[in-house]
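Q: Got a minute? One more chain.
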Amino acid sequence: MQGSTKGSTKLKTYSTARRPKPDRITGIAHVFAAGAYSIGGLRRLWQETAFRHIVLALAVCIAAFALMGASYVEYGILLILFFCLVATEALNTAVECIVDHLAPDWAEFARDAKDLGSLATMCLLCANGVFIGTVIYRFVVVN
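A: Always. Here it is, folded:
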């Protein structure tokens, strides 16, 4: 994979050479292959600054919840919302990769696709913020 620069943003370029489709993996090997694909996705997502910020925010929230004496249910909800946010960020990154490949120059469909992916991520960020806010409110007001 080689990179090209466009302005100050480094875009990844992918080979367009045709390659044969790999053989289908079945049975228990499929489970291990799926795990390897997920790890590859996690490695790719780690390259995104937004994902690293999400991971940092989770660590801060876990520490804050510990200081506030959050319940196991609150920790569970935090983790569920965090994993939903990670999944949404992964899908948003996938959309951006495809759009950057299909439309290296500006195109309205590309802008719309990226804006919609960004909206999905923002909605989950807001959901996380509302939940964390309610836990903080309970700690400050009730206690």
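A: Residues 1 and 18 are 15 Å apart (CA to CA).
Q: Perfect, thanks.
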